[in-house]
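User: Can you recover a sequence for this backbone? Please restate the input before giving your answer.

Assistant: Of course. Working from this structure:
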C-alpha cells in the first residue's frame, strides 16, 4: 500500500494517523473518566501525569496529521454522493479536527490555570504554562475540558455511525478506503 493517498484510497500514513489517534483517544477517555473518580491522594498524581502526557501526545499527533494532510491529497468523494452530503462530510470532518485540538488544549489550559505543579511531557520535557494561575479561570477551563470532551464523543460516535451506514447500507467504499486491508468494491475507487 502506498504511503500517500490516491483518488480512491487513503494512504498508509493518513490511515495510521486516523486509527492510532482513535485508539489513543479511547484509552485517554477511559483514564480520564476513571481518574476523576479516585479519592484525592498524592498516589493519584502519576495517573494524572500519565493522562496529561498522553493527551499532549494526542495533540502532537493531531498537529503532525494536519501537516501531513497539507502535503497529501484527499481521496475523491465517492460516486453518487450529493453536493449536500459532500458538504456535510466536510463540515463534520472540520468539526472533528477542531475538537481534536480543543480537548487537549482545554486540558492544558486547566492545568496551567490551576498551577499545581510544573507540566512535564513523559517526565522529561518541561512545557510552559499557557496562562497565569487563576482559580476562577481554572474552573471554567475544567468545565470546558469536560464539555468539549463530551462534544467530541458525540460527534465521533455520529461520524463512526455514518461510516458504518456507508459500508453496510450504501455499500460504497468510504470505510474500506480508510482500512489497511480494505479492497475497493467499485472499479472507480481503485487507485
Ligand atoms: C485528547 C486528549 C484528552 C482527552 C480525550 C481527555 C479526556 C478527559 C476526560 C474524559 C476527563 C474526565 C472528565 C470528568 O468526567 O470530569 C479528563 C479530565 C482531566 N484532564 Fe483530560 N483529556 C485529554 C487531554 C488532557 C490534557 C492534555 C491535559 C493536561 C495537560 C488534561 C488534563 C486533565 C485533568 C487535570 C483532568 C481532571 C479534571 C478534574 O479534576 O475534574 N487532559 N480528561
Ligand atoms: C475519536 C474518534 C474519531 C475521530 C476523532 C475521527 C476523525 C476523523 C477525521 C478528522 C477524518 C477526516 C480525515 C481527513 O479528511 O483528513 C476522518 C475520516 C474517516 N473516519 Fe474517522 N474518526 C474517529 C473514529 C472513526 C471510527 C470509529 C470510524 C469507523 C467506524 C471512522 C471512520 C472514518 C472513515 C471511513 C473516514 C474517511 C472518510 C472519507 O473518506 O471521506 N472514524 N475521521
Amino acid at each position: 500500500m502506498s504511503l500517500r493517498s490516491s483518488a480512491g484510497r487513503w494512504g498508509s500514513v493518513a490511515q495510521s494517523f486516523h486509527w492510532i489517534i482513535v485508539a489513543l483517544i479511547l484509552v485517554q477517555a477511559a483514564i480520564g473518566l476513571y481518574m476523576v473518580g479516585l479519592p484525592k491522594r498524592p498516589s493519584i498524581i502519576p495517573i494524572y501525569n500519565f493522562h496529561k502526557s498522553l493527551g499532549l501526545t494526542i495533540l502532537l499527533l493531531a498537529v503532525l496529521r494536519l501537516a501531513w494532510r497539507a502535503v497529501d491529497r484527499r481521496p475523491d468523494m465517492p460516486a453518487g454522493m450529493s453536493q449536500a452530503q459532500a458538504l456535510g462530510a466536510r463540515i463534520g470532518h472540520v468539526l472533528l479536527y477542531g475538537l481534536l485540538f480543543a480537548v487537549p488544549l482545554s486540558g492544558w489550559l486547566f492545568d496551567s490555570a490551576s498551577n499545581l505543579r510544573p507540566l512535564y511531557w513523559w517526565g522529561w520535557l518541561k512545557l510552559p504554562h499557557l496562562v497565569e494561575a487563576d482559580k476562577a479561570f481554572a474552573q471554567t477551563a475544567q468545565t470546558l475540558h469536560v464539555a468539549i470532551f463530551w462534544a467530541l464523543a458525540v460527534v465521533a460516535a455520529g461520524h463512526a455511525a455514518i461510516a458504518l451506514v456507508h459500508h453496510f447500507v450504501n455499500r460504497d467504499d468510504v470505510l474500506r478506503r480508510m482500512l489497511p486491508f480494505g479492497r475497493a468494491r467499485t472499479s472507480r475507487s481503485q487507485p
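That completes the design. The pocket of protoporphyrin IX containing FE (ligand 1) is lined by residues 25, 28-29, 32-33, 36, 48, 51-52, 55-56, 58, 103-104, 107-108, 110-111, 142, 145-146, 149 (CB under 6 Å).
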